[in-house]
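Backbone-to-sequence.
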């Protein structure tokens, strides 16, 4: 039998005395750190060069403060501590003070003295990261969210200063992304975390745009993202050559809508984006599933004015979620101009969303666009709960193409086309992970009623969330049909024929779609446009041929080659009669 060292129980009086002693020393060290960091940061415009010994002394001072904080947490959160003693850490904001005065201010000092301080900054980053990781592992769950976000911040600092080794930079980018994703799981409506994820998403411009816009359209928006997003927009807007790629063309359109200036630029940039869209989807096949959800969500956030409560849709949606909502009063020339710009931006956002829908929804039978359809249905369903908001977009929405795509989904369901709409579709056994786009939708203002409360309880690693398993294709089909049934129940836009098991657009919304289809068919009959298995493209050799390439079906495409022709012909028969 191995003898154990003798342990003595500690009394409440001893714990209280220990905490008081630690706190007194901690306050003295904290005051010294504030004084030293403040004095040094005041000289950032013309800073003196500190020698190695001075840097070592500063690191030692802040290391000692971190150790004092660690001792304070150990004592105040001791298993024998009384509830009042345990509450001291929250009462005196100890986690925030530890981060601010023990780590962040000193890191900012080191950052402003780069490159001369690089070696010391690396040493302190590793020290601080180790301390935060220790607290995360040993402290109660009450503080877990704080430690997780701090670890993400440290990973982001470490990534930002790595210029030499791109592999190290990528490693620390993944570290920061991991912790911020963990933090957003615990606080999915906190915009600050999505702002940080946007920074780590570089150079993926579409993903950056998604995270920036999401940070502004959650219940707790991060308003400073309105400034940070300009670092994404300005380089693309300043150099037209950068807009040649699909990603940058998409971002360029959003930049004009966000900034609410130079709307005339959309006359060229928006058609150019549309000309790239269909070909990009066809070329990327399954790899477009993730960016497809980002495109749909970003377009939805643009319709909400990127969280601007003076925007027509956002004003309505936000008012329904606030007990005290006061309209912004516009007066004066400047306010009138701003109001006109807001309305113009909304109109452009509507055009962007609708035209994107037309191009994507025309790809009936292509499973790679289902994440896009899923996200757009979720957005429209939320608007349907607000009739005033829905009235602003319903007349221009392409209900006809949406119904055609939904019917193609029904045709490819593996079982009976009846969907139980009384409960959210999810598996009872097996892989019950959320769909990849569910993580992107989570936390948005317009998805607060979309998911069951326990839907995200499954533990899924951040790197596995985007992984598409075969069973998800059918799960996604059931989901979009479920959302479609709930959407049709909210209004008269379309219905479901129980006999034919088809979605049917209501006559009031069919006529506009038919007229648009007839225009396309007439153009095709005169040779000015040709049909290519689900989309419309200019005739070979025309000046517009390069601008709008024909659709090239991916291997997984299951619709017949003449689907578009059949759809157009059936529509004409319905409108003109069999003799047409």
């Amino acid at each position: 039998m191995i003898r154990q060292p003798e342990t003595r129980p500690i009394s409440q009086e001893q714990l209280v005395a220990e905490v008081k002693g630690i706190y007194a020393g901690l306050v003295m060290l904290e005051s010294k750190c504030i004084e030293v960091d403040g004095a040094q940061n005041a000289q950032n415009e013309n800073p003196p060069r500190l020698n190695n010994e001075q840097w070592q002394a500063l690191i030692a001072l802040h290391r000692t403060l971190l150790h004092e904080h660690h001792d304070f947490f150990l004592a105040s959160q001791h298993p024998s501590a009384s509830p009042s003693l345990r509450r001291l850490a929250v009462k005196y904001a100890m986690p925030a003070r530890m981060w601010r005065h023990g780590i962040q201010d000193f890191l900012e000092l080191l950052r402003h003295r780069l490159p001369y301080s690089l070696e010391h900054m690396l040493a302190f980053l590793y020290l601080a990261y180790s301390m935060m990781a220790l607290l995360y592992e040993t402290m109660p769950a009450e503080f877990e969210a704080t430690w997780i976000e701090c670890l993400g911040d440290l990973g982001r600092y470490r990534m930002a200063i790595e210029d030499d080794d791109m592999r190290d930079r990528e490693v620390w980018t993944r570290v920061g992304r991991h912790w911020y994703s963990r933090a957003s799981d615990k606080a999915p409506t906190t915009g600050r975390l999505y702002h940080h994820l946007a920074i780590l998403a570089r150079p993926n411009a579409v993903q950056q745009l998604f995270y920036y816009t999401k940070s502004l359209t959650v219940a707790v928006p991060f308003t400073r993202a309105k400034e940070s997003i300009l670092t994404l927009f300005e380089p693309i807007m300043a150099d037209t050559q950068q807009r040649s790629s699909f990603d940058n063309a998409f971002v360029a359109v959003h930049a004009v809508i966000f900034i609410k200036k130079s709307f005339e630029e959309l006359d060229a940039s928006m058609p150019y984006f549309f000309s790239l869209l269909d070909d990009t989807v066809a070329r990327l096949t399954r790899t477009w599933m993730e960016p497809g959800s980002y495109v749909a969500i970003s377009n939805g956030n643009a319709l909400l004015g990127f969280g601007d409560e003076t925007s027509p849709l956002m004003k309505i949606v936000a008012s329904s979620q606030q007990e005290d909502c006061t309209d912004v009063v516009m007066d004066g020339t400047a306010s009138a101009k701003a109001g006109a710009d807001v309305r113009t931006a909304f109109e452009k956002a509507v055009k962007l969303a609708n035209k994107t829908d037309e191009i994507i929804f025309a790809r009936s039978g292509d499973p790679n666009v289902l994440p896009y359809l899923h996200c757009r249905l979720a957005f429209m369903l939320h608007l349907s709960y607000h009739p005033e908001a829905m009235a602003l977009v319903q007349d221009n929405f392409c209900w006809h193409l949406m119904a055609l795509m939904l019917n193609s989904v029904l045709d490819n369901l593996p079982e009976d086309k009846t969907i139980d709409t009384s409960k959210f579709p999810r598996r009872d056994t097996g892989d019950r992970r959320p769909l990849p786009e569910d993580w992107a939708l989570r936390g948005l203002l317009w998805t607060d009623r979309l998911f069951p409360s326990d839907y995200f309880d499954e533990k899924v690693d951040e790197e596995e969330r985007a992984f598409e398993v075969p069973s998800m294709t059918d799960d996604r089909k059931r989901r979009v049909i479920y959302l479609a049934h709930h959407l049709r129940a909210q209004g008269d836009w379309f219905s479901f024929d129980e006999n034919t098991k088809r979605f049917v657009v209501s006559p009031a919304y069919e006529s506009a779609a038919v007229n648009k289809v007839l225009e396309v068919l007439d153009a095709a009959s005169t040779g000015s446009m040709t049909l290519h298995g689900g989309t419309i493209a200019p005739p070979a050799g025309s000046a517009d041929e390069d601008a709008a390439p024909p659709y090239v079906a991916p291997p997984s495409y299951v619709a017949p080659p003449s689907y578009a022709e059949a759809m157009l012909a059936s529509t004409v028969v319905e409108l003109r009669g069999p003799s047409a």
